[in-house]
Amino acid sequence: MDLRALDLNLLVILRALLAAQHVSRAAEQLGMSQPAVSRSLKRLREVFDDPLLVRGPDGLSLTDRAMHLQEPLDRVLGEIHQLVSATSFDPARASGSIRLGCLDLEASIYLGDMVSVVRRDAPGMDLEIYSHPGDFFTRLARGQLHLAISGLEPRRNADQFHRRVIDRTWSECLMSAKHPLASGEMTLSRFLDANHGIVSITGEGPALMDDQLRRLGRSRRVMVRLSSFFNVPDACLDSDVIFSLPHRMARRLSQHGGIVRRPLPDELRAGGFPMYLYWHARHHADAMHRWLRQTVVSELLGDLED
Asked: pLDDT, tens digit, for every residue of 267-296?
């Protein structure tokens, strides 16, 4: 097709439609009327020769073509945004959204003052913290997030991401105060005889602790898999399940009555592991993004307590 005949605004509308999977919600996000978005959807269907959104049992669903369009669409629009963006950035006059991904508990530990800093220095910008468990790296790659905080590493396309260490932590055990391991020596044998739980951000794969045990030729029984750290105290309180968590998270969660934290067995205390701030290569040189990393995030993450 002749690209001169394509209205770039249609691609912006398409991205909103594919993300919302709902015409009215997309219209609200775009600040447009519902009929205008419906007319744009009709034109988009003609452009791509595909229905893009079809009715299903739970509302609108994406067609196969629409699902394949999401990633390149996010990438292309992100590159266009960079192409036309100013090379300087004045936070006091800026508008738009800052989108950061991290789990709820990580947000409470690392980002406690971020709202006040953004309101003070960039009052025209919105702050969106995306805490739903999932693959933050995919969202970074698609341009849906500017930054993400995670102790994980990307499983693919690692060369697309930049990162810096914002904290170095170690693991501790969390359990009910009534658990047998709440007192006495924490030996590797007692630790491995216990029933374990893990918090899985992506819902896939083993935990870091299981990788460490595998290197020692050992394994444990994992009985509970959670998607949120905030559910750990409830899972521990009246059960025999123990969790191995980063110490800042274990310390925060042990404030819950009836929960205690204990050190790991000596064999599992080797070193520590980093927490990273990640961003995608597409944002690395962006003026707003440099301000966000260097000014806001550095101020918030620079004075962590031991």
From this structure: 888 767 888 999 998 888 888 888 888 877
Identify whether the C-beta of residue 1 lies closer than 8 Å to the C-beta of residue 47: yes
Which structure tokens are listed for 164?
Answer: 């810096």
127/15 Cα distance (integer angstroms): 20
Count of C-beta atoms within a 10 Å radius of residue 221:
10
Torsion-angle region of 49 (φ positive above 0: left; ψ -120 to 50: alpha; else: beta): left
Contact at 8 Å (CB) between 34 and 10? no
Please name the amino acid found at residue 70.
Answer: Q
> What is the Cα 11 distance to its own chain's centre?
25
Q: Is the pTM of this model over 0.90?
A: no
Instruction: Provide the total of helices (H) and of strands (E) in the chain, helices listed first.
Output: 13, 12
pLDDT digits over 125-165, tens only? 998 988 876 788 988 988 889 999 988 888 888 889 999 88
Contact (Cβ atoms closer than 8 angstroms) between residue 140 and residue 280: yes
CA 145, 151, 156, 161 torsion-angle sign: positive
Can you spell out the DSSP letters for 39-92?
HHHHHHHHHHTS--EEEETTEEEE-HHHHHHHHHHHHHHHHHHHHHS-SS--TT
By CB neighbour count within 10 A (0-12 exposed, 13-18 middle, 19+ buried), where does 155 fall? exposed
From 143, 146, 157, select the one nearest 15 (Cα to Cα). 143
Query: Going from the N-terminus, what domains does the chain have, and what CATH number goes with each?
Result: 3-84 (1.10.10.10), 96-157+284-301 (3.40.190.10), 171-270 (3.40.190.10)
At residue 184, the 3 state secondary structure works out as coil
